UniProtKB/TrEMBL annotation:
Family to which this protein belongs: Belongs to the TRAFAC class OBG-HflX-like GTPase superfamily. OBG GTPase family.
Subcellular location(s) per record: Cytoplasm
EC number: 3.6.5.-
Name the UniProt record assigns to this protein: GTPase Obg
Matches recorded under InterPro entries: G_OBG (IPR031167), GTP-bd (IPR006073), GTP-bd_Obg/CgtA (IPR014100), GTP-bd_prot_GTP1/OBG_C_sf (IPR036346), GTP1-OBG_CS (IPR006074), GTP1_OBG_dom (IPR006169), GTP1_OBG_dom_sf (IPR036726), OBG_GTPase (IPR045086)
Species of the source: Mycolicibacterium rhodesiae (strain NBB3) (Mycobacterium rhodesiae)
Residues annotated as binding GTP: 166-173, 191-195, 212-215, 292-295, 322-324
Any one cellular-component term (Gene Ontology): cytoplasm
Positions of the UniProt region annotated as Disordered: 437-481
Gene transcribed to yield this protein: obg
């Protein structure tokens, strides 16, 4: 049996960028070929795309982890790594995307609407792109950036023209099955409908959709009963129809009190999206009242008695129907279509969303330096943290290049201004190191071995002659001196 899922938590992980390549061109009769390491490929992004053929979030309920492919590493010969393909994830029309804090990120309405849920990491530069006057043959390359990882909540808000509201067992599911080809479960006990049911209704040459959502009870706006699981599905409905059970035997209930109780819950409910999809606020949506089960003689008498009172008090159209005998169904369908078409025409046309570009101010330094309260300092900023993630700390030359970048950005000057002392701890991103202000940066350096930097006095990386001596020692037969 199919299952309807309208709220899920997904874990989106974009692909990592590929590492750059540190390579030097070697070819016979061509000395000093120069650096030829290619750049790493960009990681794939996770993109949510609206697909009209998808009607539920069931797939994400069983497979909540969405992972995009990573980019490939660069290669010698100036060959860039392949970029990871974007992973397009199909979602139903009417999906709302929320972040970890419940903040609205996207309202996906309309076939083909796209949203970048997680951005892929950028690939690292190869040593060919890092060559400069000071570094003619860099012995290092930049690492690829990590892809974005996000926990997102997807909510499906049913997209329908008519929303049927009413107490449990008021006959909403029976009405949908009577005027459309939908076959929802119908029974004579409360909360038969646990998930929304959509039906397509024909009114002559026109068609519209009707949503039968779970029954509403007093206190639903505070989460009682099915509560918010019901209410969020009426946010996109152009017309709300109260389905009233005129044959109920419960004490203290009558059509007028039922309508007042439903309206009180609708007024207390705060939609996630104000003015959702140009439909206006929930209180301004047109309404109609359907008095159901008039095939029962007592119910017909009650409907005739309260009809004028409902019209005078609320000013809404009132229809008397029976889903069993099908009395009054045809006039109801044409009247509902007239209400839907009139309301749609009265609303302003939807304005396509434009991309928002926020330029960075000219005097924006791009970082901040704060004291950690223990004699150290913490540097925050998109660029310094990105540079830290791109640096291979096993390569002294790469560390020296990082120092040059931070000095040009002004981090060292800011640390001096704040009173930083030599050897104090400086934290950038996930890396903490001892600060040495006397290290010159941004100046021409004497040539040294590839992967080394003369400004770094201590290094754990063995030199080439040391590695050769250790290899000869390992290969020496036992017993030889």
């Amino acid at each position: 049996m199919s299952r309807f899922v309208d709220r899920v938590l997904i874990h989106a992980k974009a692909g990592n960028g590929g590492n750059g390549c540190a390579s030097v061109h070697r070819e016979k009769f061509k000395p000093l070929g120069g650096p030829d390491g290619g750049n790493g490929g960009r990681g794939g992004s996770v993109v949510l795309v609206v697909d009209p053929q998808v009607h539920t979030l069931l797939d994400f309920h069983f497979h909540p982890h969405v992972v995009a492919p990573s980019g490939k590493q660069g290669m010698g010969g100036n060959r860039d790594g392949a970029a990871g393909a974007d992973l397009e994830v199909r979602v139903p029309d009417g999906t709302v995307v929320l972040d970890e804090n419940g903040r609205l990120l996207a309202d996906l309405v309309g076939a083909g609407t796209r949203f970048d849920a997680a951005a892929g990491g950028r690939g690292g530069l190869g040593n060919a792109a890092l060559a400069s006057r000071a570094r003619k043959a860099p012995g290092f390359a930049l690492l690829g950036e990590k892809g974005q990882v996000r926990d997102l909540t997807l909510e499906l808000k049913t997209v329908a023209d008519i929303g049927l509201v009413g107490f449990p067992s008021a006959g909403k599911s029976s009405l949908v099955s009577a005027i459309s080809a939908a076959k929802p479960k119908v029974a004579d006990y409360p909360f038969t409908t646990l998930t929304p049911n959509l039906g397509v209704v024909s009114a002559g040459e026109h068609t519209f959709t009707v949503a039968d959502v779970p029954g509403l009870i007093p206190g639903a706006s505070e989460g009682r009963g099915l509560g918010l699981d019901f209410l969020r599905h009426i946010e996109r409905c152009a017309v709300l129809v109260h389905v009233v059970d005129c044959a109920t035997l419960e004490p203290g209930r009558d059509p007028v009190s039922d309508i007042e109780a439903l309206e009180a819950e609708l007024a207390a409910y705060t939609p996630t999206l104000q003015g959702d999809s140009t439909l206006g606020d929930l209180a301004s949506r047109p309404r109609a009242v359907v008095l159901n089960k008039i095939d029962v003689p007592e119910a017909r008498e009650l409907a005739d008695f309260v009809r004028d009172e409902i019209t005078s008090r609320f000013g809404w159209k009132v229809f008397e129907i029976s889903t069993v005998s099908r009395e009054g169904l045809r006039p109801l369908t044409f009247a509902l279509w007239d209400m839907v078409s009139a309301y749609r025409e009265s609303q302003p046309a939807a304005v396509p969303r434009r991309p928002v570009i926020r330029p960075i101010p000219v005097n924006e330094t791009g970082f901040t330096v704060e004291s950690d309260g223990e004699g150290g300092f913490v540097v925050r900023g998109a660029r310094p943290q990105r540079w830290i993630a791109q640096t291979d700390f096993t390569n002294d030359e790469a560390v020296g290049y990082l120092g040059d970048r931070l000095a040009r950005l002004g981090v060292e000057d800011e640390l001096l201004r704040l009173g930083a002392k030599p050897g104090c701890a400086v934290t950038i991103g996930d890396m903490t190191f001892d600060w040495e202000p006397q290290t010159p940066a941004g100046v021409d350096l004497p040539l040294s071995g590839r992967g080394t930097d003369v400004r770094l006095e201590q290094t754990d990386r063995p030199k080439a002659d040391e590695r050769k001596a250790a290899r000869r020692e390992r290969r020496r037969p036992r017993g030889e001196s």
